[in-house]
Amino acid sequence: MGNAELDIEELRTFVEVADAGGVSAAALRLGVSKSIVSRRLFRLEEELGVQLLARTTRGAALTEAGATFRDYAARVSAEIDVARETILPAGDLRGRLRVAVPLSFGQTHFAPILAEMARRHPQLQIQTCYSDRFVDLITEGYDCAIRVGYLQDSNLIARRVGPIYGKLVASPDYIKAHGSPETPEELVAHEALMQGTEAWQLMDGDKIITVRPQGRFKADNGTALVAAATAGLGIAYLPDCLTHDYIASGALVPVMTRYPPPPAGAYVIRPPGQHPARKIRVLTELLIEYCEPALHEK
Length: 298
Hints:
It is a single chain. The chain has 298 residues and is α/β, with parallel strands linked by helices. It has three domains: 8-87, Winged helix-like DNA-binding domain superfamily/Winged helix DNA-binding domain (Arc Repressor Mutant, subunit A, Orthogonal Bundle), CATH 1.10.10; 95-163 and 264-297, Periplasmic binding protein-like II (D-Maltodextrin-Binding Protein, domain 2, 3-Layer(aba) Sandwich); 166-255, D-Maltodextrin-Binding Protein, domain 2 (3-Layer(aba) Sandwich). It has eleven helices and 14 strands. It has helices at 8-20, 23-30, 34-48, 64-87, 103-109, 111-120, 172-178, 184-187, 222-230, 240-249, 278-297, and strands spanning 53-56, 59-62, 95-101, 124-130, 144-149, 157-164, 166-170, 191-194, 200-204, 207-211, 214-218, 235-239, 253-255, 264-270. The strands form four sheets. Strands 4-3-5-14-6 form a five-stranded mixed sheet. A five-stranded mixed sheet has the order 11-8-12-7-13. A two-stranded antiparallel ribbon has the order 1-2. Helix 1 crosses helix 3, helix 1 (8-20) crosses helix 4 and helix 2 (23-30) crosses helix 3 (34-48).
């Protein structure tokens, strides 16, 4: 075996394979070919003299040694990243930033901010995934996510970057046919347009009431719920920036205005770690700078 040395790229590649659950998924994340990933893994196992991964029909599973080594390798890779950032000139960011962003909101609100970040940092590679499903940051290899709404409890670290206001809306046709609910009790008897089985929060003065509405039309995307509301299918609870133009044109009407939803938030979420990477801090600051005024307007 001789005096083999561990290579940082090999360590980082191994961590990606361990977290992604296979060579193909890791190659996609790293932006290199599968053969390069396999070669780096092979060299690492040669140097360590142990098998880190057991190849399975479904991908790659960690051996016991691999599971132990993954945490050390991840820590070393993170430390190297921090060290690199620390010695870079003050404003310089490089490497890769993978961000998960909500689809309904992201293209209009967050895409321009991510483009501005890329413009300011020419050495930085930015990969954005637009989806309204909750991606698993750790297993899917994201540095951070931008989330909108009320946060679920989790072990992820969240930083609020701005407020988001919303309201309950319906089309004039729906109101003509079914009436306009005045109280939370009446709301439960109406058709609700929802993402899933979520509860809706409403304010009664300073008190927050939780309502569990029912409905037959569900969509995991805010724009699709706007379309359903304008088609007269029910009452939707949506952020103002998605409904603003429809309310202005009269295609949608606010309902239950005596019980407005409490303001939600836009957040940057990252996996727990000792030290947020500087690129995540820079993105967070940029979002705060842009979101505070912009999210009020619409």
